[in-house]
């Protein structure tokens, strides 16, 4: 049987994308290393446009040139192993897309080595989890711009649609697509952490019940914070437990895992010399959350601060909403600044407005707010930091007092809010407040003769420090 597209790896993501393509009228050939997975898929979801293959050679033979394959296997070594099996069967001009969460440096390496063999390789970020993959993900392809034309019709057909536009766009050469996906995931970490901090504030400072928080989040979801994550959180507050008569959220362990894309973003930002402190704070918050036993054991060791409740619960809720929105702007400003820096460093020419536009549907961070980001970059493509866009500047100036107030309440009450704290620190360092680096320069010159710069004249100076006692 002839096929239009081959998918290698039919686990959760691969099978969902295969069925999505099949729904859109493409003849999809599917192959999985373990035969049983393919058999189960055909049994559970038979589809006239999905054709199972049990030999890679046969899948390759089923296509006209240029052939197109999507690899959807576990990131890392398995991707190289699949490429090694596939490439000897291919001809020049054939195309391989890697839709997994591959590290962008691996993608750069693979693209380069396959280009030498005449194969077009696309590192393709796919966001939206199983449901997104099945019914419309956000897709971030990176590779050769001309070759992209061969796969664009398929990718754009299966992508989510926002205001009728596909949430899929060519990102740039080699690792650009996987880089954007990595930063997307980093922003997702910060977004989720900020919402978790808003929950802690409402619950432990504002004294709100899950029921009340569900209503508050429903209300927020009709305003500027409207987003997929706020929407599902409202529903989570209402969820009943199947195993007890409690509300489910209260029965879930206060400890969250991480797979690594947030950490990659954080490590990469340090390499680039860009501050994404809120993403790093979100990674660290998960690390702290994993210390379940030590945290429990320490409860009796440390004195708890005296509780201070807000005078007006409703007004406090409004401050949390404003503070959360302000901090969210700052998190996105950090993420997009990292993209801008990487774009220059790797020569990708990323289009930030377009990137925000393809996040508007299909992915976890989808939100109305992304339209405002697109507008900001459309108005000023050279914008260096989102906080400086007039729309966001006004929002930050209006919301910063709420952010400071809820932070003060969190600290007084002993509630950890690391991402919101980093938002305020980043804002204050950005808005020209002293950051204490004059003293750091002095210390460095004093102990290591590293020299220092002055405010009244150019050049590097060294001072013979006398360090006299009182
Ligand atoms: P997994 O990451 O769980 O990977 C399982 C698949 O990889 C199976 O098809 C498995 O084959 C195959 N595989 C593993 N090792 C090899 C190997 N050495 N050779 C050939 N095939 C191998 O699957 P998911 O569907 O969850 O994810 C696929 C990719 O998409 C990953 O990179 C993931 O990070 C990314 N992703 C996942 C999302 C999600 O929500 N799950 C969301 C967005 C991206 P076998 O059946 O034979 O073991």
UniProtKB/TrEMBL annotation:
Pathway: Carbohydrate degradation; pentose phosphate pathway; D-ribulose 5-phosphate from D-glucose 6-phosphate (oxidative stage): step 3/3. InterPro entries: 6-PGluconate_DH-like_C_sf (IPR008927), 6PGD_dom2 (IPR013328), 6PGDH_C (IPR006114), 6PGDH_Gnd/GntZ (IPR006113), 6PGDH_NADP-bd (IPR006115), 6PGdom_BS (IPR006184), NAD(P)-bd_dom_sf (IPR036291), Pgluconate_DH (IPR006183). PROSITE patterns: 6PGD. This is 6-phosphogluconate dehydrogenase, decarboxylating. Keywords: Gluconate utilization, NADP, Oxidoreductase, Pentose shunt. The active site is at 181 (proton acceptor), 188 (proton donor). Coiled coil: none annotated. Pfam families: 6PGD (PF00393), NAD_binding_2 (PF03446). Residues 177-466 form the 6-phosphogluconate dehydrogenase C-terminal domain. Its EC number is 1.1.1.44. NADP(+) binds at residues 9-14, 32-34, 73-75, 101. Catalyzes the oxidative decarboxylation of 6-phosphogluconate to ribulose 5-phosphate and CO(2), with concomitant reduction of NADP to NADPH. It is an enzyme of class 1 (oxidoreductase). GO terms for biological process: D-gluconate metabolic process; pentose-phosphate shunt. Homodimer. It comes from the Bacteria. SMART domains: 6PGD (SM01350). Substrate binds at residues 101, 127-129, 184-185, 189, 259, 286, 444, 450. It comes from Eisenbergiella tayi. GO terms for molecular function: NADP binding; phosphogluconate dehydrogenase (decarboxylating) activity. Belongs to the 6-phosphogluconate dehydrogenase family. It catalyses: 6-phospho-D-gluconate + NADP(+) = D-ribulose 5-phosphate + CO2 + NADPH.
């Amino acid at each position: 049987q002839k096929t239009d597209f081959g998918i290698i790896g039919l686990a959760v993501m691969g099978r969902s994308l295969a069925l999505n393509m099949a729904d859109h009228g493409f003849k999809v050939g599917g192959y999985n290393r373990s035969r049983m997975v393919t058999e189960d898929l055909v049994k559970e979801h038979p589809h006239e446009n999905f054709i199972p293959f049990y030999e890679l050679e046969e899948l390759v033979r089923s296509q006209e040139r240029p052939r197109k394959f999507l690899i959807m296997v576990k990131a890392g070594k398995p991707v190289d192993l699949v490429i090694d099996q596939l490439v000897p069967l291919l001809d020049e001009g054939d195309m391989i897309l890697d839709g997994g969460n591959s590290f962008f440096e691996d993608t750069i390496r693979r693209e380069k080595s396959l280009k030498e063999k005449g194969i077009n390789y696309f590192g393709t970020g796919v966001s939206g989890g199983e449901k997104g993959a099945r019914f419309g993900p956000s897709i971030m392809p990176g590779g050769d711009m001309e070759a992209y034309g061969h796969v664009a019709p398929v990718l754009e057909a299966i992508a989510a649609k926002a205001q009728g536009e596909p949430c899929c766009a060519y990102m740039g050469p080699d690792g650009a697509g996987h880089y954007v996906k990595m930063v997307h995931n980093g922003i997702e970490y910060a977004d989720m952490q900020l919402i978790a901090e808003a929950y802690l504030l409402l619950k432990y400072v504002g004294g709100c019940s899950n029921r009340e928080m569900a209503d508050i989040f429903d209300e927020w979801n009709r305003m500027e914070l409207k987003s997929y994550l706020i929407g599902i959180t409202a529903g989570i507050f209402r969820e009943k437990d199947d195993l007890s008569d409690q509300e489910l959220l209260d029965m879930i362990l206060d400890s969250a895992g991480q797979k690594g894309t947030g950490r990659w973003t954080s490590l990469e930002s340090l390499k680039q010399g860009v501050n994404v402190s809120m993403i790093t704070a979100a990674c660290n918050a998960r690390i702290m959350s994993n210390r379940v036993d030590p945290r429990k054991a320490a409860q009796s060791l440390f004195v708890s601060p005296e509780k201070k409740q807000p005078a007006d619960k409703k007004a406090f809720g409004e401050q949390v909403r404003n503070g959360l929105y302000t901090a969210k702007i700052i998190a996105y400003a950090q993420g997009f600044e990292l993209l801008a820096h990487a774009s220059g460093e790797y020569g990708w020419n990323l289009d930030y407005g377009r990137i925000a536009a393809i996040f508007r549907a299909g992915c976890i961070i989808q939100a109305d707010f992304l339209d405002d980001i697109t507008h900001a970059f459309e108005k000023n493509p050279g914008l260096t930091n989102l906080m400086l866009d007039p729309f966001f500047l006004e929002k930050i100036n209006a919301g910063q007092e709420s952010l400071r107030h809820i932070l003060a309440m969190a600290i007084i009450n002993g509630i950890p809010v690391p991402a919101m704290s980093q938002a305020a620190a980043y804002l204050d360092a950005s808005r020209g407040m002293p950051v204490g680096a004059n003293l750091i320069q002095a210390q460095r010159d004093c102990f290591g003769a590293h020299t220092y710069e002055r405010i009244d004249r150019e050049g590097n100076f060294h001072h013979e420090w006398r360090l006299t006692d009182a």
